[in-house]
Amino acid sequence: MDIKRKIWNLIKKRFNIRGKSFLVNGIKRKVDRTYYQKKYNTDNLISSLNELGLKKGMTVMLHCSWDEFYNYTGSPKEFIDALLFEIGEEGTLLMPAYPLHNIGKNDIFDIKRTPTGAGLLAEIFRRYPGVVRSVNMHSVCALGPNANFLTEEHQFSVTRWDEKSTYFKLSLTDAIIISMGLGKSYIPTAFHCAESVLREEVPYFKQFFTDESITKFKFENGTVKNIHELTSSKTFARLHTKRSTKYIVNKYFDKSKYAKSRISNLTMNSYDASYLINKMIELGRHGKTVYVKPDPKKTLKL
User: Fold this and answer.
1) Distance, CA of 92 to CA of 294 (rounded, Å)
2) Considering only CA atoms, which of 110, 109, 116 is closest in space to residue 94?
3) HSE (CB half, 13 Å, CA atoms) of 27?
């Protein structure tokens, strides 16, 4: 471990910083608080989401940072309840549910009890009655009539975002992916489906799956099972930036398939899930990717 990394680890431990992005976002949030002070309530939020495409009977995958809801006058539960009411009994709500802490080889990922690292809103939703959780290191929670269809095969995924994953299956339903408080250039996790689907077809994407991990999962019925998956090596530098994702979206995406908005400080994006996933796969086949490292020009015709 080099001296810079040692110093950074000491700083993280001393000031309880999870990472550079958390530090930068924390500073940005303090600055934003002085500029964005307009309050908004649940009705305002739902109205804004309706403008982004939210409607009855829809399947909705939600990514959000609750820290950015500081001008919201409601509570996490009030917002979740309002979302569920808005999509109705025919709709399905999903949120990420990957673990809060790393799962070591001797640890167990308890589907029923292991907290999610996807934020406060996702953790509260995970505990709702009737919510089901997919068995995968990039687990997802879901509630609604499509919940089982979307989550039940994730345990059989070879990679975290392949055709059996919850993320890819969003493309097979009338789904939208919404992000809140994650920045105006945020592109949802589902874009990773491209490298998973294309890993055997396009050599460049196979580089992302050079290692294998084995995780012990405890199912809801108490059964403990080892789940194998292909992953990237710990030293493998795969990088996409805000600039590179913004470029791909702005240059190649149909503008009718996504929308952006803001209420007070809170940025909101929505994407047609099927379009996003299939478009990223199509672009990957033609040598277009959000990744800048490893250099795609070496194996893709850009």
Assistant:
1) 37
2) 116
3) 6
* Higher-pLDDT residue of 119, 29: 119
Model-level pTM? 0.89
Higher pLDDT, 214 or 35: 214
Cβ atoms of 173 and 58 within 8 Å: the answer is no
Whole-angstrom distance, CA of residue 251 vs CA of residue 237:
25
Return the pLDDT at 25.
62
In eight-state DSSP terms, residue 99 is B
* Omega before residue 294 within 30° of 0, cis: yes
What would the two tokens of residue 183 be? 């920045």
pLDDT at 1: 47
Q: Say if residue 16 is exposed, middle or buried (CB neighbours under 10 Å; 0-12, 13-18, 19+).
A: exposed
Q: Tell me the C-alpha distance between 45 and 83, whole Å.
A: 10
